[in-house]
């Protein structure tokens, strides 16, 4: 099954979904975005690398801001950077590179986003993209990522689930978790307050049951 042009969703939704379904819904259904210092730095970094253009460094051609799309996964995006590594004759191997302000995260959200880019490139250019990299600004480290079967399945599942969630128009309730401390929407989501509210409701339900 594929998607039409009108059904495409931003590839960034996958990264948000893998991090937290509620965050994905707040951004992509409710259009909420809390710009703080960290997100502003990340946005400026992306704007810089997104500036469209092309450069050549020996056997590597570098494309900035390349538009990406997959009708199979229903995704649309702009790549930070796609390197094309010379193989032979007129053969060049695409290698997506994503720029992140922070450092490597304990979950796979950045890898899923990068793998989504690779799968868009594969569909658009009819090639196989076996690997890419994520550059982390805080650690100034480039992490190589192999697009293995497990990561590809995780990316496909995330794309399907993101479509389902956005289509439903329903935002899941907040569940406070350690990752909330790293969430750019914590001041809008108020997960601790929402959790307390739910606990009071649970308390009342239990109290009525025991009457
Ligand atoms: S604060 Fe926590 S529950 Fe709320 S959107 Fe962020 S990660 Fe999800």
Secondary-structure topology with pairs:
Layout: E1 9-10, H1 12-19, H2 21-28, H3 37-50, E2 53-57, E3 60-64, E4 67-70, E5 75-78, E6 81-88, E7 91-100, H4 109-125, E8 131-136, E9 141-146, H5 149-168, H6 186-189, H7 191-209
Helix pairs in contact: 1-2, 1-4, 1-5, 4-5
Q: Can you describe what's shown?
A:
- There is one protein chain.
- This protein has helices at residues 12-19, 21-28, 37-50, 109-125, 149-168, 186-189, 191-209, and strands at residues 9-10, 53-57, 60-64, 67-70, 75-78, 81-88, 91-100, 131-136, 141-146.
- It is an alpha+beta fold.
- It has a 6-stranded mixed beta sheet with strand order 2-3-6-7-8-9.
- Helix 4 (109-125) crosses helix 5 (149-168).
- It is globular, with a radius of gyration of 20 Å.
- The protein binds iron/sulfur cluster (SF4).
- The site of iron/sulfur cluster has 14 residues, from helix 2 and helix 6.
Which architecture of the largest domain does the CATH hierarchy give at level 2? Alpha-Beta Complex
According to DSSP, the number of beta strands is 9
Strand order of the largest sheet: 2-3-6-7-8-9
Mean pLDDT across residues: 88
- Category from helices, strands and their pairing: alpha+beta
Tell me the name of the CATH class of the largest domain.
Alpha Beta
CATH topology (fold) name of the largest domain: Lambda Exonuclease, Chain A
| Helix and strand element order | EHHHEEEEEEHEEHHH
**Number of structurally distinct domains:** 2
Fraction in beta strands: 15-25%
How far is the N terminus from the C terminus? 52 Å
What ranges have pLDDT less than 50 throughout 5 or more consecutive residues? none
How helix-rich are the residues, as a percent range? 40-55%
Biggest beta sheet summary? 6 strands, mixed
CA gyration radius, whole angstroms = 20 Å
**What overall form do the CA principal axes indicate?**
globular
Q: How many H/I helices?
A: 7
> Which kinds of small molecule does this entry bind, naming each only once?
iron/sulfur cluster
